[in-house]
Amino acid sequence: MPGQRVRGPIYRLYSRRLRRNLERGPLPKHVAMILDGNRRWARQAGLESAAHGHRAGALKIVEFAEWVVELRIPVITLYLLSTDNLTGRQSEELDALFGIIANLATALSERWKVQHVGTATGLPTTLTEALAEAERRSADRTGLHINLAVGYGGRTEIAHAVRSIVAAHQAEGGSLDDLADLLTPEMIGEHLYTSGQPDPDLVIRTSGEQRLSDFMLWQSAHSEFYFVEALGPDLREVDFLRALRSYAQRQRRYGT
């Protein structure tokens, strides 16, 4: 079955070597992760439904968070369910996925600070309540901050930010003409779901796909990207450490 690997002394030695090299830095302050390939993983394993792959992916996310904590990376964003998924997946798969995400949010909030980034539109009440409770339970936690991108779309987020700016400006008695002169990228950033957080320095995607899929379009303008061939549930710690090594070796140009 995918994901079942023997990790002997050579693997552990290599992992320790990668970690030592990373001590020289720099490390990202915010890592965004698209853990893709759960459904393909389930098919390759001969499992009867995609839900098995999504459950394996959820377990991997908890493991990923533990790796991040060990390296003292303060913020991660996990792309769990897009707005496109809500219309492009069969209802049976979505129902199972809603429950898996709700359980994951609860489990993560018992150890780390959790924030839902996305819209509640199209999500069942059970899931939105679980996400809200995870936020409430973990609001005072310090350490790792985990953004759960659920019901998330980058274009939708930007549209929501602009509408929020317009509404606030009109409530203060301003006109659209006035707003045109005041509107800046910084103002839009302040109205995004991740307001107040650093933009992701590094975006990682598993499964070999090399696209953003409407994920953090605004925030990733200057991000570094790293693509891993492994399917989501098969992601290993050394894959993550290699991504960080690649990041540390790059000269960031911030769009230039």
Number of strand elements: 6
Instruction: Write the element-wise H/E pattern from the N-terminal end onward.
Output: HEHHEHHEHEHHHEEH
**CATH architecture classification name of the domain at 28-152 and 199-249:** 3-Layer(aba) Sandwich
How do the strands line up in the largest sheet? Answer: 3-4-2-1-5-6
Q: What class, by secondary structure content?
A: alpha/beta
What's the overall geometry? globular
CATH topology-level name of the domain at 28-152 and 199-249 = Undecaprenyl pyrophosphate synthetase
**Rg estimate, integer Å:** 19 Å
- How many helical elements? 10
> At the fourth CATH level, what is the homologous superfamily of the domain at 28-152 and 199-249?
Decaprenyl diphosphate synthase-like
The separation of the N and C termini measures 44 Å
Tell me what the structure shows.
With 256 residues, this protein is α/β, with parallel strands linked by helices. It has a domain at 28-152 and 199-249: Undecaprenyl pyrophosphate synthetase (3-Layer(aba) Sandwich). 49% of the residues lie in helices and 13% in strands. The chain has helices at 9-22, 38-44, 50-70, 83-88, 91-109, 125-138, 154-171, 176-182, 185-190, 237-249; strands spanning 30-34, 75-82, 113-117, 145-152, 202-205, 224-227. It has a six-stranded parallel β-sheet, sandwiched between helices. The longest helix is centred in the N-terminal third of the chain and has 21 residues, at 50-70. It is globular, with a radius of gyration of 19 Å. The N and C termini lie far apart (44 Å). 37% of the residues are buried. The mean pLDDT is 93.
